[in-house]
Amino acid sequence: MDNQQKDPALPFAHPAFLLGTILGVGRIPFAPGTCASFVSLVIGWFVTGSLGHGAIALLALLFIPIGIWATNICIDASESSDPPAVVIDEVVAMWAILAFVPHEVIFYGLGFLLFRAADILKPWPIRQFERRVSGSIGVMADDWLAAAYALAGVYVVKFAIG
Q1: What DSSP line would sit under the chain, residue for residue?
Q2: Could you tell me the residue ranges of all domains in the chain?
Q3: What is the pTM of this model?
Q4: Residues ≥6 apart with Cβ < 8 Å to 101
């Protein structure tokens, strides 16, 4: 069995499936992580614009334990170490980025692009971390590291352009 390709064998209405796949966004057949990151970017834009950066930070923090729980159940149901349909990890990481960048299209877009690049390319130490930490914590935390890379990149650009 290819450990990276099997979706969770859960009914669509199962709370862990709904949360883990972000209401099925993770089932999109092309680039589900990128699609989920974009959905979270749009949600984050409106949440931050109307309620402030603290609200999106709170959402990210609240979704960490929810993500760990849902991912754990989805891993068990799929017998996969990182089911591709589980995208709550991208959502939490994207919201964490948005909590710390200016509410401007350029910085949101840059954060999105840098996060997706770091999540896909997995530069050091993300790939090593992903190999060493298994389970739902590993699935979630490699995206937190990618978010840290994205935030660093956004702030380098912000500093460079003044």
Answers
A1: --TTTPPP-S-TTSHHHHHHTTTTGGG-SS-HHHHHHHHHHHHHHHHHHHH-HHHHHHHHHHHHHHHHHHHHHHHHHHT-SS-TT--HHHHHHHHHHHTTS-SSHHHHHHHHHHHHHHHHH-TTTHHHHHHHS-HHHHHHHHHHHHHHHHHHHHHHHHHHH-
A2: 41-161
A3: 0.91
A4: 107, 108, 110, 111, 151, 154
Chain center to CA of 38: 10
17-51 pLDDT tens trace? 999 999 999 999 999 999 999 999 999 999 999 99
Q: Which tokens belong to 40?
A: 């979270």
Tens digits of per-residue pLDDT, 77-101? 987 888 999 999 999 999 999 999 9
From 75, 77, 86, select the one nearest 19 (Cα to Cα).
86
Phi, psi of 90 (to 5 degrees): -65, -40
Contact between 55 and 48 (Cβ < 8 Å): yes
Q: In the structure encoding, which two tokens stand for residue 17, read together?
A: 């499936």
